[in-house]
Amino acid sequence: MKLSFRQPSISKFNLQITGSKSISNRYLILKAQFPNLELSGLSESDDTHVLYKAISTLDQKCDEIDIHHAGTAMRFLTAYLSSLPNLEVVLKGSKRMHERPIGILVEAMRELGGHLEYLGSEGFPPLKIYGKSIQKNKISIPANVSSQYITALMLIAPSFKNGLTIFLESKITSKPYLLMTAQALRSVGVEVDMHEEYIRVYPKTKIEPKTIAVESDWSSASYFYSCLALMDHGEFELSTFQKDSLQGDSKVAEFYKLFGIETQFKAGSIFISKKAGVMHPKKIELDLNDTPDLAQTIAVTCLGLDIACDLTGLHTLKVKETDRLVALKTEIEKFGAEVEITSESLKLSPKANLKESVSVKTYQDHRMAMAFAPLAIKVDLEILDPEVVSKSFPDFWEKIKVLGIQQNH
Q1: Torsion, Cα of 226, 18, 346, 105 (10° steps)
Q2: pLDDT computed for residue 321 by the predictor
Q3: CATH number at residue 272
Q4: What residue range is the signal peptide (predicted)?
Q5: What is the pLDDT of residue 62?
Q6: Are residues 394 and 305 located together in one domain of the fold?
Q7: Which residues are annotated as a binding site?
Q8: Angle at the Cα of 85 (from 80 to 88), degrees rounded to 5?
Q9: Phi/psi at 63 (nearest 5 deg)?
Q10: Count of structural domains within the chain
């Protein structure tokens, strides 16, 4: 898909953003345990559809569940399926999914009494899972690898007879996602104690009937912050969002002040605005340990605005849909800039005049496609495999077309 930019005749836009994938998937696991929980505003993402379908098929006694590229579904289901007595199922995914580690979570479930077997390489999917009733109530787990391992354990802990205490080894990565999980549990009546050294989730067998409305996705909103940053001026209304959001990526509002964007909250929407003639810094430095999914967006914004950046706290990006650090370096350098990466950081030395008509590979990674798309406001470019956005934001291309980013297939 080739992208170019045509200045729209208006500078104010109203956009509805899809429901949060992270929140939706947490509540789907809770709904599986508490059927009288009703959900509205669920994400339209592939990942959420895959998880919903997987849980729905359990009634049909299926022998195999394929979650394709859905990393969240792989981790949440590894824990959830292991805790279902008398279940026997194979959990598998795409080729890339079978290259993404799952060993820490598998070992945790085994220590709790679960029965899981590797069908391929040790430490990686696919898995053969024999569901069992979990009796143990304590586990220790590294907290600096993936918050999703811990979240997966937290979400199934209410079903344990004695609940679960999770002892956290090392510094927590992506802490806001654990706070989000705790909030989801509490919202349905499950008691949770959160501490730096451990998390305690108490048992719960039944809840009162309840309906939860899922907030829109801040990660998806970040691409519109990037679009506005790359424009001279404008104002977008994005809905539906909460000022007290527990989504870690809500910090995009704070980060993009660096690019001259102001955020206001009004009646369930955010109004983001940029005045003409804003001066940008020559360099920014950010620790994204709590918000690694914003790294690609911020790096490309800096590329488009000729701003040097030093981003740290990115150690989890190597085990995402692709090695995002390597992918960012490769694709950004096609535009003429220079990028240095380590195992957990990225340094960008920008270039004032970017190369035109670059073809950007997406590596089956939805965030690569969406992060680079706003750059079309500055230079014509091509996004390869654009349909990958369906993983988290199926109507992304329709949304940015409204802003003047033209698409030629």
Answers
A1: 170
A2: 79
A3: 3.65.10.10
A4: none
A5: 82
A6: yes
A7: 21-22, 26, 71, 100, 146-148, 174, 293, 320, 324, 367, 391
A8: 80
A9: -90, -15
A10: 2
- Total residues belonging to the chain: 409
Residue written as tokens 């706070």?
179
- Boundaries of domain holding 42: 21-213
**SS3 of 118, please?**
strand
The encoded tokens of residue 9 equal 């005749």
Tell me the pLDDT of the chain averaged across its residues: 95
Using the structure block, give the residue that is written with the tokens 């956290």.
Answer: 168
Does 323 lie in the same domain as 185?
no
The 8 Å CB, 24+ separation contacts for 96-100 are 96/69, 96/321, 96/322, 96/364, 97/67, 97/68, 97/69, 97/70, 97/71, 97/125, 98/124, 98/125, 98/126, 99/124, 100/71, 100/74, 100/124, 100/125, 100/319
Mean pLDDT of 355-366: 96
Same domain, 86 and 150: yes
Tally the C-alpha atoms within 13 A of residue 214's C-alpha that lie toward its C-beta. 24
Predicted model pTM: 0.85
Known binding site for phosphoenolpyruvate: residues? 21, 71, 100, 148, 324, 367, 391
Strand ranges inside 276-372, DSSP E: 283-287, 308-312, 338-341, 345-349, 358-360
For 3, the enclosing helix (H) or strand (E) is strand 2-5
324-333 helix and 295-305 helix, angle to the nearest 10 degrees: 20
CA distance 213 to 20: 10
Q: Which residues are catalytic?
A: 293
Residues 351, 222 share a domain: yes
Task: Provide the annotated binding site for 3-phosphoshikimate.
Answer: 21-22, 26, 146-148, 174, 293, 320
* pLDDT over 80 (residue 60): no
- Residue 76 binned pLDDT confidence (cut-offs 50, 70, 90): very high
In whole angstroms, give the CA distance from residue 38 to residue 286.
Answer: 38
